[in-house]
């Protein structure tokens, strides 16, 4: 009988140990910079942003246009792989692709506070370079959380969120329902709260078969935005292949076209 009394205690200890491990290693489950390192044949970067951690280097596509676009990628995305698409699909805008700190050979380690601070600095530099033009912001997956935080701090008129979530903590809670992740997550990327007062134009590209960001989390963001967004749904698309869906680039082009 005494042996059975130890079982609940062992289970409780194991549960606490799993929670502690998740808390300590959570950023390794959110950010995957190891998949974004530059290859030997990578085109040389042509843009630098000085930050306290060091120089963040990236790429400028279609330089010299009055209007600009800043793109924030997913948690394992090589943003440089989008160069050709932005070159040909959005030729009317200068596009800035800057890997996060720790990504693509850039120095530092990612966290919400640092990525958002870098995003604000990037926006301010792009605004300086395009003083009379429009600066649109696009964020995909994790980048939607970064873009939302940026839009809460700077006057962004056009915001595109691709496979976005309401908050990273809520997404994690859906994936790990048996753990108290809402209490454990440090980098919450609460887009609902960030965009409550946002009154610019918003385009949301939704993937109907998204297994990473459940569509319900995207729908909650849509419901709770301060102003009604334009939503384009791709019912057969998943999280990683939504950009291959028919109509994806047309939706971006229409939304970002000059008035």
UniProtKB/TrEMBL annotation:
Residues 92-189 form the AB hydrolase-1 domain. It holds the Pfam family Abhydrolase_1. The keyword Protease does not apply. Keywords: Membrane, Transmembrane, Transmembrane helix. The keyword Transferase does not apply. The chain crosses the membrane at residues 6-24. InterPro entries: AB_hydrolase_1, AB_hydrolase_fold. PANTHER family: ALPHA/BETA HYDROLASE DOMAIN-CONTAINING PROTEIN. This is AB hydrolase-1 domain-containing protein. It comes from Pseudoxanthomonas indica.
């Amino acid at each position: 009988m005494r042996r059975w009394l130890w079982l609940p205690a062992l289970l409780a200890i194991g549960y606490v140990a799993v929670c502690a491990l998740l808390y300590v290693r959570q950023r390794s489950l959110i950010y995957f910079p190891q998949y974004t390192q530059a290859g030997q044949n990578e085109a040389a970067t042509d843009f630098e942003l000085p930050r306290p951690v060091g120089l963040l280097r990236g790429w400028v596509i279609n330089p010299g246009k009055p209007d600009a676009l800043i793109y924030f990628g997913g948690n394992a995305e090589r943003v440089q792989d989008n160069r050709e698409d932005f070159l040909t699909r959005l030729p009317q805008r200068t596009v800035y692709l800057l890997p996060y700190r720790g990504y693509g050979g850039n120095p530092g380690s990612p966290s919400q506070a640092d990525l958002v601070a870098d995003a604000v600095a990037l926006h301010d530099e792009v605004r300086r370079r395009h003083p009379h033009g429009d600066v649109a912001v696009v964020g995909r997956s994790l980048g939607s959380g970064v873009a939302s935080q940026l839009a809460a701090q700077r006057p962004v008129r056009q915001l595109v969120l691709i496979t976005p979530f309401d908050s990273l903590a809520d997404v994690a809670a859906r994936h790990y329902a048996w753990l108290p992740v809402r209490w454990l997550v440090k980098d919450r990327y609460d887009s609902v709260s960030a965009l409550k007062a946002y009154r610019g134009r918003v385009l949301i590209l939704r993937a109907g078969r998204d297994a990473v960001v459940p569509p319900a989390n995207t729908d909650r963001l849509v419901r709770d935005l301060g102003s009604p967004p334009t939503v384009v749904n791709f019912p057969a698309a998943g999280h990683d292949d939504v950009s291959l869906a028919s109509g994806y680039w047309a939706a971006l082009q229409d939304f970002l076209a000059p008035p």
